[in-house]
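Subject: sequence -> structure tokens, single chain

Hey, anyone have a minute? Need the predicted structure for the following. Not urgent.
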Amino acid sequence: MFIKNLTLKNFRNYSNECFNFTNGINVLTGSNAQGKTNAAEAIFFLCTGYSPRANKDKQVILYGEEEAEISGTAESLYGEISVKIKFFKNDKKSVYINGLQVLKIGELFGNVKSVFFNPSELKLVQESPEDRRRFMNISLSQMSKNYFYALSRYNKILAQRNNLLKNKDVSLIKETLPVWDKQLSTEAAKIIKGRNEFLEELAPIAEEKQRFLSDGKETLKMKTESGYTGSLEDISYCFFQDLQLGLEKDLYFGFTNLGPHRDDIKFTLNDKDVRVYSSQGQQRTVALSLKLAEAEMFKNRFGEYPIVILDDVLSELDLKRQKRLSSSLNDMQAVFTCTEFSKAKFSGKNVNRIKIENGKIKK
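Reply:
Had a minute. Here:
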């Protein structure tokens, strides 16, 4: 899969600009704050309807304008796909796939697939479990609409359950809670099973990528801490039972202490906790290995690689790791951003270089 073109209208610092990409290495270059990351963000937005940088969609609208628009055309094994997203000042957005408006954002997932990396992805390794859950949720939602909708239903039911736990009438809670718990367990099982299968497939590929990028010096291991295995029915049953056992604790705290919303992944490098004992360069390589492994998973499941977006990934890697990264992108379309362009970083590959100055492509 590869993106052929991208048009930005009143998006971030772009008034009206069109990018043309090749099915290989594409490099957006320019000084800081010129718009390279904005273009990379727009590609990912077309794939997921989600921005890794904006808390609210309206933040992407060019200052002084009422609305913005991004659109692009991609090519997959199954033909050409066009996606357009319009953003409005009231924080609403409209999504169109092949010219037809879709009313559910979940319908966007899986049409144009991508893997995104920028410096903030270090949070995946360094910071809270929420960042690691976000990584799994975005990847799995692109792979399966069923996962996305199960996650959406789970979060709605969880909110209802937590509201009920705050009620002062304990007898009402105990009478009503089993109805919510049954529904919550059904959706939780789908999420847990999806994540278990995802990590089981991801872990050995990420280990291989880490070993390659580090020239065989580093062994990456990961494990989930959910604790549930087996069929959907087994997981649902065990989860429901644990909800009952944890009821007093939930009543005391006023929220649900158990479930996929509490999951985490533990990473080790040469048997040492990555967050504690690894340098920032090693942590960056771990995050990058996870993203490259994610791209391989897309290939294994769908027969083609996703678009790989690498925003400012080269700045913290030494030249040897930069070259190894480039060589690992064979058969993939990659969109890099960097301030300084050097062909030496790309192992002699043909590169489509696009220079950007102040939100405009410099011809």
